[in-house]
Amino acid sequence: MSLLDNPRSPRVRAVAKLARKAARSETGLFLLEGPQAVAEALTYSPHLMVELYATPTALDRYTDIGQTAVDAGVDIEFISEEVLDAMSDTVTPQGFIAVCKQFPTALKDIFAAKPKLIAILEEVRDPGNAGTIIRAADSAGADAVILTGRSVDLYNPKVVRATTGSLFHLPVAVDATLSDVRARARAAGLQILAADIKGDDMLEARNSGLLTAPTAWLFGNEARGLTDDDLLYADRSISVPIYGRAESMNLATAASVCLYETAFAQRS
After folding, report:
1. What is the pLDDT of residues 222-252, one digit of tens each?
2. Among 268, 191, 188, which Cα is nearest to 237's?
3. Residue pLDDT, tens place only, 138-159
4. Residues of the chain with CATH 3.40.1280.10
């Protein structure tokens, strides 16, 4: 068994560079870390995997990943713990690192598929929030997620980790503009609902039947929310009420509520 054990080798440095946006933009590649994300990629999109690395210990622990890689025709290269640390963007890497091709979905293809539920992220800058919203959209059965050009890079390692593999489950578009999204959403028969603290109460929206219609939810910046100009792109603004004494609600949590409320309404 050959082992890549030099943390200063050119190959290791090339993988580590993918933590930086400039390297991702130049190569069209991104980092994938951890057993769960690697397993999802091997199961749903093995053709995107360019390189797959694992420590012998990790492969002994997750034998199912090794078998899935074999079945998918993806070779695994063994690496030392030192090389793993050098490649990884995390403080405590979990034994698996892959290099994958970026695969954003074209905006026109998302709306051509006649979606019923979409999440739009406008100037969402926190990687953890963006990744968690993608995961929530996947969980709620949404048809797609759209990131505008003012949002965090979809392939930022922290975004990818926060999706926990959901990145490979539903279409995600990037670098969109709200004007383009609104035009396409209206042409496809979707209403745009903005999640905004000054909006109408979610309970009223639920009781009125508003949420049963095909819907694109618009979520804004963590600190500032949606600007007045952003809100002009929405058909209506809806707020998630806070019944307790919390000062505010995390964006990803609020987005999860919005997406699930709509999923419940559309399935009832």
Report:
1. 999 999 999 999 999 999 999 999 988 999 9
2. 191
3. 999 999 999 999 999 999 999 9
4. 107-267
Distance of CA 60 to the CA centre of its chain: 29
What is the total residue count of the chain?
A: 268
Q: Given strand 49-54, what is the order of strands in its sheet? A: 29-33, 96-101, 49-54, 77-78
Handedness of CA 98, 102, 104, 106 (dihedral sign): negative
**What is the C-alpha to C-alpha distance for residues 117 and 97, in angstroms, rounded to an integer?**
32
The residue behind tokens 């990629």 is: 41
> Is residue 94 a contact partner of residue 58, using CB atoms and an 8 Å limit?
yes
Q: Please tell me the CATH superfamily of domain 107-267, with its number.
A: SPOUT methyltransferase, trefoil knot domain (3.40.1280.10)
Model-level pTM?
0.96
Number of C-alpha atoms within 13 angstroms, CB side, residue 111? Answer: 19
CATH code of the domain made up of 10-101:
3.30.1330.30
Nearest Cα neighbor of 258 from 221, 215, 208 is: 215
Given a cut of 50, the residues of the chain with pLDDT beneath it are none
Residues of the chain with CATH 3.30.1330.30: 10-101
